[in-house]
Structures are given as C-alpha cells and as structure tokens.
User: What shape does this take?
Amino acid sequence: MNGGVAQRRTDGVQALSAAQKQFFDGNGYLILPGFFDAARVAEAKAHIGDLWADRAPSNPLVVDYFGPPVRAYLRDTDAAVRDRPYKLNDVHLCDKVFQNLSLDPRLVQVLRDVLGAQPMACNTLLMERGSQQAAHFDTFYMPSPTPNMMCASWIALDPVTDANGPLFYYPKSHLIPPFRFSSGGLHAIGAEMADAKRHMAQIIAEHGLQEERFYPQPGDVLIWHAQLLHGGSPITDLEQTRTSLVTHYWTTLDFPDPAGWVVLGPGRILQRRGHQHVAGGNDTAEVDAFVAALRTPRKYCDSAPPDFDPRGYLLRNMDVFGNRADPYVHYALHGRAEGRGW
Ligand SMILES: O=C(O)CCC(=O)C(=O)O
Ligand SMILES: [Fe+2]
Assistant: This one.
C-alpha cells in the first residue's frame, strides 16, 4: 500500500508527480497523507453539530439512515440517529465548510492531474460512522457520461481502525472490463444486481484481487478511480466514530455549458443541481419547480424525442427525480437504453 502514498511537497502545492500519476493509473487509487491540517479537520468535525442543530424549514439537507424511514430531511430527524451509521447527502451544495474541503484549491489541482480534465463535484456523502456498504463500483449509481471521466475523494476526519469500518478497495480492479447491464451501460438496473454481484465475486477470484483497507489519520485523503471496486468494512465498535467526507467528481468535459456549474473560484466547480428528494411531500409541485429551473445543455434537449416530456419522465421515474438528475440528460445517457418512458 505504501507505493500509493503521495509525498508531501514542501512548497505547499500538492500536484502530482509523474510517478504518482503512474501509480494512480496502474492501481486505481492514491493516498495523500496529511493533506488537510488539524485546524481544518477540527473545524469540519465541530461544524457537523451545527448542521444537525439547524431545524429551520429552510435547511434543505437530506439524510439516509437505516430506518424506517430510510430517507428524511435532517431538520425532521431525531438527534439519536447521529449515534448510528448515516449518510448526509450533498452537504457541498449549501455549506461553505464542506464545500471548501470537497473543492479545496490544492485538492482540485490533484484531481485535475488524475482526470486530465477539470473536475466538477457532483455528489457528496458525509458520514460519522462507516457505511458498511458492500463492494461496488460508483458507476452503478452515478456513471459519468464519458466512461472513466470520474473519480472520488475520501477525506478522513477521524482515525480509522479495523473496529470502526474502514474503507476497503481492490487495487487494480479498475483495469478489468466493467460489468455491463442489459442496457449496455454501467448504470445499475435493480433487477440485474444479482448478476453484477456474481460478476464482482468472479473477477475477485479470477484476477486474484486482494482487498486493502484504508487506515488513515485525520486529514489524510484517498482518491479512487471511477472503476475501482470498493466498499465499507463491517463496524465492530459503534462507539467509535469514523467521520469522513466522500466527494464524487465528474468533469466539465461532459457538462460544457457553464449554466450547469456553480463556480466557487478558479478550478473550483460544482454541478448546479438540487438536493435529494424526500418522498411523501407534494411530489408534483416539487417536480414542477425542478423542471422550471432546469438549465439543460442544448445538445441534450436537441437529442430528446420530439414528444419528450421532462415532467412526465420525472413523475414516472421518481428514482431519477430522487437523484435530482436532469431528465433530458438522464434519458439520453440511461433512460433510452433502459426503455424508460414518460
Ligand atoms: O466510506 C465508505 O465506507 C464507502 C463510501 C463509498 O463507497 C462511496 O461514497 O462511494
Ligand atoms: Fe462508492
């Protein structure tokens, strides 16, 4: 694992050397030790309490936990949920402290080196405990329009041990041709997940992939490739927090229209999109407001069938609306091949 550790440069700039880039390309991940200092880590950790304390109706944050209910507004969620594994969605859309971690100026430089393009944060997950998530490819959930033009950063805000559910990953798994669903794409089709699971078990056995675990200190960062097989190990001690921020990045190559970006500063771009959807409210009104605010890149509007109805598409495919995906973009990239209607 040491080979994946990037050396810290003394000039304060952390862009990748040729050897580091080569390591990432060959192994599918890279570790950046001590990337964020203790003050940044302490600020972020303390700030989570502020997010939970904000009970105002205007707090848009949505939390997933092992329910029921599984998904709820943070403002409506019992504080006791904080003591169990949960994921806070897309805090980067509205919170400066976490935006500044996900899109730290030095981090985006590293990501640009890794991607060979301008990164654009598309999703974040803030957790205070391990995810215990089974092995997966992130492309099951959010494949970039152009394959492999995607990566993720995992920022440690706590020390990680075997007891608090370390991130695990299979080096070099990104080099194996990915599993394709019946659509021909990488986006998961629920009914075919059993086949995808068999595929993952098979490539682990056939390629002799060896699991590695990430045992960071606070402030360490791990970056992984779109197609790196990874997940969260089981937690054996729920008392130990494992605070971490995961950010997934696409690139502006896939979303070239600046109307779809929020620019925080040079090279610091996040995708312009809404928060996750909590079912049970007034879905129709929420879909209407979302559709009215769409700023779809022209090429996706032009590619839709003449009778395509974005509102009907979202109402019929609430999972798409749940991710606040642009209906035109989603249909062009996934929905058409998946046989989705409107
Ligand atoms: O932190 C973890 O346990 C896994 C997170 C993960 O796989 C992700 O957010 O893509
Ligand atoms: Fe993941």
